[in-house]
């Protein structure tokens, strides 16, 4: 299998001005490392505000101006600088955005899905392809001439998916594709992601919905306060096997089949994260130096208990 995306030690921070115009560096993502192969669905599972959309935007080169990005992002073995990201964005790498607000409220659906064309021929080809994809996703010809406000939530989602697929991407980043949808539309959307992976497309599924991740992902990358704390095989998670990090175990214990067991404390917000292990405040059996030193992600786990060389 060919590795499509390689994210190595990526950190994202923001300069913020506090009282008295003091500068403060707010780190939102720290040392993030993950990879995706062709035909694989990797879910990044994290709570709201943990930095998931920023990860998507970092890969696509659409971070806000005040964001500071460090680390390395490779696509097909080549390092992506800002120029390269702009060149492949919307072509080889496509985004299914988190919000249907990405649709222009004043433009007819087909016009905005097709976008700008350099020649009439290009426009005609795109129109044919757009219709084909819309048909595949159950969007009738009437939809072409509709405005976004005329679409149901499920239809708008399908339009966003179709837009992402128009360029035959090799990698799709689906940012929270299911919230706000009814059960049927959720199932349908997840099936579309599966179909994409069956067509050998790599899918980065960004979600806070553990059920969505368990339903379709091959592997789950567990995000905690902007840190990847463990990457597990979905099969192992379903069986409760080989789950090493206490937070991963806590997520498993909180599943309905395990009686919704809750863990003390809450995930620290950016700016409140302990100096040592980000999970220190909630860990039942920390080591004596866990409060002072930061564990690295080694062999897919970020915990000193499994990384003795630290
Ligand atoms: N332009 C910005 N300036 C300063 N801080 C920002 C900016 N954009 C995002 N942040 C910070 O980064 C955090 C993570 O944002 P992000 O949108 O990636 O979260 P998320 O995990 O996608 O959340 P959600 O599940 O709600 O979509 C935010 O909580 C906010 O603190
Ligand atoms: S590094 Fe230490 S505090 Fe963090 S999860 Fe492992 S044992 Fe607990
Ligand atoms: Mg988000």
Automatic annotation (TrEMBL):
One of its GO terms (biological process) is peptide transport. PROSITE patterns: ABC_TRANSPORTER_1 (PS00211), ABC_TRANSPORTER_2 (PS50893). Its main location: membrane. It is a peripheral membrane protein. Keywords: ATP-binding, Cell membrane, Ion transport, Membrane, Nucleotide-binding, Translocase, Transport. GO terms for cellular component: plasma membrane. InterPro entries: AAA+_ATPase, ABC_Ni/Peptide_Import, ABC_transporter-like_ATP-bd, ABC_transporter-like_CS, Oligopep_ABC_C, P-loop_NTPase. The keyword ATP-binding applies. Its EC number is 7.2.2.11. SUPFAM superfamilies: P-loop containing nucleoside triphosphate hydrolases (SSF52540). Gene3D superfamilies: P-loop containing nucleotide triphosphate hydrolases. It is an enzyme of class 7 (translocase). Residues 5-250 form the ABC transporter domain. GO terms for molecular function: ABC-type nickel transporter activity; ATP binding; ATP hydrolysis activity. It catalyses: Ni(2+)(out) + ATP + H2O = Ni(2+)(in) + ADP + phosphate + H(+). It is found in: Cell membrane. The complex is composed of two ATP-binding proteins (NikD and NikE), two transmembrane proteins (NikB and NikC) and a solute-binding protein (NikA). This is Nickel import system ATP-binding protein NikD.
């Amino acid at each position: 299998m060919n590795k499509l995306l390689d994210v190595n030690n990526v950190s994202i921070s923001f300069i913020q001005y506090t009282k008295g115009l003091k500068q403060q560096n707010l780190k939102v993502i720290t040392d993030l490392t993950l990879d995706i192969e062709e035909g694989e669905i990797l879910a990044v599972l994290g709570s709201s505000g943990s930095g998931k959309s920023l990860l998507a935007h970092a890969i696509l080169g659409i971070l806000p101006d005040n964001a500071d990005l460090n680390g390395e992002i490779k696509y097909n073995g080549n390092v992506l600088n800002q120029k390269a990201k702009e060149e492949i964005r919307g072509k080889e790498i496509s985004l299914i955005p988190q919000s249907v607000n990405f649709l222009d409220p004043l433009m007819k659906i087909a016009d905005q899905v097709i976008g700008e064309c350099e020649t009439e021929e290009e426009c005609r080809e795109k129109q044919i392809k757009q219709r084909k994809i819309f048909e595949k996703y159950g969007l009738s010809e009437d939809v072409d001439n509709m405005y976004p406000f005329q679409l149901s939530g499920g239809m708008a989602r399908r339009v966003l998916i179709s837009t992402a697929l128009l360029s035959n991407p090799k990698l799709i980043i689906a940012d929270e594709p299911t919230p706000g949808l009814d059960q049927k539309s959720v199932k349908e959307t997840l099936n579309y992601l599966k179909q994409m992976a069956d067509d050998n497309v790599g899918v980065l599924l960004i979600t806070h919905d553990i059920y969505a991740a368990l339903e379709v992902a091959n592997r789950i990358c567990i995000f905690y306060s902007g840190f990847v704390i463990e990457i597990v095989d979905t099969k192992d998670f379903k069986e409760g096997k080989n789950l090493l990090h206490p937070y991963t175990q806590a997520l498993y214990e909180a599943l309905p089949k395990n009686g919704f067991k809750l863990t003390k404390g809450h995930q620290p917000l950016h700016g409140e994260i302990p100096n040592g292990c980000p999970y220190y405040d909630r860990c039942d059996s920390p080591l004596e130096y866990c409060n002072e030193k930061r564990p690295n992600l080694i062999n897919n786990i970020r915990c000193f208990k499994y990384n003795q060389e630290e």
